[in-house]
Amino acid sequence: MYPEHASHGPVSRAVDVHTPVPLPPAVAMSAPVAAVQPGTVPAVASIVLPNGQVVTGYAMSPVQPEPLTVKPAVSRTAVNVMAGGVGFLAVCGGLFLLTAFITALTALITQLIVFAAVCFGGFVAVQVCRTGGHRGGTTVNIRKAVIKRNKFYG
Is the distance from CB of 109 to CB of 117 less than 8 angstroms? Predict the structure, then answer.
């Protein structure tokens, strides 16, 4: 099915190498002066190919590759994650401080209410339980009083 492997010798082919021959630069003829952009104009080169064709054009400088960009020591993603973590911690700290402030304010208001109740209760107790001295007004002994038509008869 497959042909037998036969040993073939190296194939020799005739190779012709052609080297381009540059032409001397052309002599400029007097022509009207035209506006030229600032800077230098590159020289025009002409060469004759082996088949007799003349190629004229500008010499091109080799293209320089763009310099490689230097990668930062820390990746951009790591920086973003770190910044997000710092922001999250700042928010958590702020919420903790807000909660602590609200708790302290609630405790202060509770203490003020208790203080006002104690002061008012003490004032009432002093007024009720005060003994000695004549207090103004009429003293009525309710046990012996007779109440008729919203009037006391003692």
Answer: no
For residue 96, give Cα distances in angstroms to 71, 91, 102, 103, 109: 39, 9, 10, 11, 20
pLDDT tens sequence across 74-123: 888 889 999 999 999 999 999 999 999 999 999 999 999 999 999 999 88
Q: What is the sign of the dihedral through the CA atoms of 129, 134, 140 and 144?
A: positive
Q: How far apart are CA 74 and CA 76, in angstroms?
A: 7
CA distance 20 to 52: 10
Look at the alpha carbons of 140, 143, 148, 154 in this order and tell me if their dihedral is positive or negative.
Answer: negative
Non-local CB neighbours of 57 within 8 Å, separated by 6+ positions: 44, 45
> Is this prediction's pTM over 0.90?
no
CB-based contacts of 141, cutoff 8 Å, min separation 6: 154
Identify the three-state secondary structure at position 4: coil
